[in-house]
């Protein structure tokens, strides 16, 4: 009989452990889903601001949403222009992948398996945004702040930061 009770106790402990593990996975999935929603909301808001300003924000909308590293890299571009009076930037609007953006075009926002925000533009193709999010208050998703770390410009994974670092020195 003592073996039978021990076996039941062991099975109970195992089931509790499995139940706790499933709960932990569910919490992790929910947090990941919330983070994806917050990232998409950040990029959606950035695009809406650019639409509202018709691309005339100063500083540009991307710089307002950029994290510290991307902002510093974008400032290299301005310093280069001040010094040489020529641009080292990409010769099109990065948000719209176009020299003459159509602010009314359809666009779709989603998240990739890698956690990038994917913007599919009806006229400009695909743009991918890498975001870093500060979630100091993990219990309140309203306090999570996401910033654009980088923009992937093409299928070869060339990024905006790489372009500016390579061309604006």
What does this structure look like?
By secondary structure, the chain is α+β, with helices and mostly antiparallel strands. The chain is built from four helices and four strands. It has a four-stranded antiparallel beta sheet with strand order 1-2-3-4. Strand 1 (107-111) and strand 2 form a beta hairpin. The longest helix is centred in the first third of the chain and has 52 residues, at 2-53. The chain is elongated, with a radius of gyration of 23 Å. The relative contact order is 0.14. The model has no long low-confidence stretch (mean pLDDT 84).
Largest beta-sheet details: 4 strands, antiparallel
Estimate the strand proportion: 15-25%
What's the overall geometry? elongated
Q: What's the end-to-end separation, in Å?
A: 79 Å
Count of separate DSSP helical elements: 4
Q: Biggest sheet: strands side by side, in what order? A: 1-2-3-4
Could you outline the blueprint of secondary structure elements for this entry?
Blueprint: H1 2-53, H2 61-65, H3 68-84, E1 107-111, E2 117-121, E3 125-134, E4 145-152, H4 160-167
Antiparallel strand pairs: 1-2, 2-3, 3-4
Short summary of the structure?
The chain has helices at 2-53, 61-65, 68-84, 160-167, and strands spanning 107-111, 117-121, 125-134, 145-152. It is an alpha+beta fold and 169 residues long.
């Amino acid at each position: 009989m003592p073996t039978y009770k021990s076996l039941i106790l062991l099975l109970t402990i195992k089931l509790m452990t499995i139940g706790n593990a499933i709960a932990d996975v569910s919490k992790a999935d929910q947090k990941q889903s919330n983070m994806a929603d917050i990232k998409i909301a950040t990029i959606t808001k950035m695009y809406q601001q650019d639409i509202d300003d018709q691309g005339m924000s100063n500083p540009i909308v991307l710089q307002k949403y950029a994290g510290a590293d991307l902002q510093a890299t974008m400032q290299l571009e301005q310093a280069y222009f001040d010094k040489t009076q020529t641009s080292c930037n990409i010769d099109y609007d990065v948000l719209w992948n176009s020299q003459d953006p159509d602010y009314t075009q359809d666009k779709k926002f989603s998240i990739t398996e890698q956690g990038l925000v994917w913007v599919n533009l009806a006229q400009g193709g695909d743009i991918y945004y890498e975001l870093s999010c500060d979630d100091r208050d993990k219990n309140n998703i309203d306090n999570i702040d996401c910033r654009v770390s980088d923009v992937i410009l093409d299928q070869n994974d060339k990024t905006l930061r790489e372009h500016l670092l390579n061309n604006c020195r």
